[in-house]
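At this stage, I wrote out one protein's amino acid sequence and its backbone structure tokens, and that material follows here:
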Amino acid sequence: MNKIHFRFLYYFLGWIVLTAIIPAITGCGQDADISSQKQLDAPLVTFAVMGDVPYGLTPEEIEKEKSTLRKQIVDLNMDDSIEFVVHVGDIKKGAPPCETQVYKTVAQILRANIHPLFIIPGDNEWNDCKDPVEAWKLWDSHFMRFDQNWPNDLGVLRQETRQENFAIFQNGVLFIGINLVGGKVHDSEEWLSRIEDDRAWIEEQFRNHSNDASSAVIFAHANPGTQVRGNFKYNREEFRPLIEFLDRKTDTIFPKPILLIHGDGHKWIEDQPFPTAGKRITRVQVTQGGLESPLRVEVYGDTANPFRLIRNQYQ
């Protein structure tokens, strides 16, 4: 065999080997990488949050807010990717009377949602009312266990001593709802007892899921406060035991990222105000529902930054 034939055979065999190996290296491997990336990028849980809606003082303002809420429910119903919705309280402005029809009408609007919807109390429909005892009876009658209006497999748990406090565990993400309001203190003993119940419920759920949860989301109504020059300034001193527990104690029983979502202040806040926890606990105050559409939240398995907050998704 002369040199020309040998060289031709050499290149020919090399070409055959390369055409067999390259697809295996690039094609199949690339498909696997893409599949893995898609799986990594898929959210574990997607949900929506609203608060301080419907609002309004005059009859015209109230009707406009109700219309806005109805439209938001229609928009949410078009999104089949969300698993549930949470209303973080204040179904009315503080001044108008706390009458049966108010609770009945809002409950009717919210029931038009096709996704399971949870609601926690706000101060405007409870302790800020002229008769908070009767107001609580109305809230209990129209909103307690509100999620049971929808058949679901969310595995909802409720605190035995305080049924409005709930917990869900979905795809490695823990969700906790608590009764934390601002406003008037009619009974200081009740406040201390309720906030201790909130703390105990969170601790119980954190301990139960310390090994199998990648992150947690807590829903409340009241804005607990803000950080001022490295210290946390409480909007109410009664919040201290709960916030100190979250800030200083959860790193040992639940050293995972935590998202605290509340309403109350009407203006958007996104920060990490707790001095000890630092970036591990993110606080979000949702914008008043009449001014901005519900907040869409996607939770991922990324332990460093699991929460994606999407504002004005539903317009």
Q: What stands out?
A: The chain is about 35% helix and 20% strand. Confidence is low (pLDDT under 50) at residues 2-13, 15-39. The two ends are 77 Å apart (CA to CA).
